Amino acid sequence: MIIVVNPAAGGGRAGREWPRLASLLRAGGLQFEERITSRPGDATKIAREAAATGCSLVVAAGGDGTVNEVVNGILTAQARELPCLGTLPMGTGVDLCRTVGIPSDPLEAAAILGNGTRRRMDVGRITCAG
After folding, report:
1. What interhelical angle do 42-52 and 64-75 show, nearest 10?
2. Strand, coil or helix: what is 51?
3. Phi-psi category of 46—alpha, beta or left, where left has phi over 0 and alpha has psi -120 to 50?
4. Has residue 92 got a pLDDT over 80?
5. Are 89 and 106 in contact (CB under 8 A)?
6. Per-residue pLDDT for 116 more than 80?
7. H or E element in which residue 57 lies
8. φ, ψ for residue 40 (rounded to 5)?
9. 43 CB contacts (<8 Å, ≥6 apart)?
10. Which are the catalytic amino acids?
C-alpha cells in the first residue's frame, strides 16, 4: 500500500497532522509506504507509478483534489491490473468520503483500509472542448 499525502490539504492541516497519524497507523499494524506531494500533479504521477509497479492499493491522504489526482494517476497507468483507491480524509471538503460513507476521522477511515472492505464505483472521464 502506498499513501499519497498532500500536506497542503485542509489549509495545511494534513501536513501538520500526518506525522502523528502515520505513527498511529504503523502502531496499529498498518504497513505502508508514504509519498509526500510538493506541487500540483505530484499525486497523479505517484499514483500512476504505483499502479505501473503493481501496487494493489493507493491511498489519497488529503481532500477531494488529492483524490482526483490519485484517481487520474490510477486510470492513466499502463498496468495489467489497476490498484484499488483508498482515502484518508484530511482535506476541507472531503465530499467523496461523505458521499460513500467513509468516516471523516482519518483514524476511523484507516480502520476500513485495514479490514479490506471494498466497494465498486463507476468512474467517468469528461473532456471539455473550447
Report:
1. 40
2. helix
3. alpha
4. yes
5. yes
6. no
7. strand 57-62
8. -55, 140
9. 4, 6, 37, 60, 62, 66, 69, 70, 73
10. 64
User: pLDDT tens digits, residue range 4-62?
Assistant: 999 999 999 999 999 999 999 999 888 999 999 999 999 999 999 999 999 999 999 99
Nearest Cα residue to 38 out of 68, 15, 10:
15
Angle at 54 between CA 53 and CA 58, to 5 degrees: 100
The pLDDT confidence band at residue 105, using thresholds 50, 70 and 90, is: confident
Rounded distance between C-alpha atoms, residue 32 and residue 57, angstroms: 10
Residue 85, SS3? strand
The model's pTM is 0.89
Residue 93: pLDDT over 90: no
Q: Tell me how crowded residue 70 is: count the other CB atoms within 10 A of its CB.
A: 30
**Which grid cell is 103?**
468516516
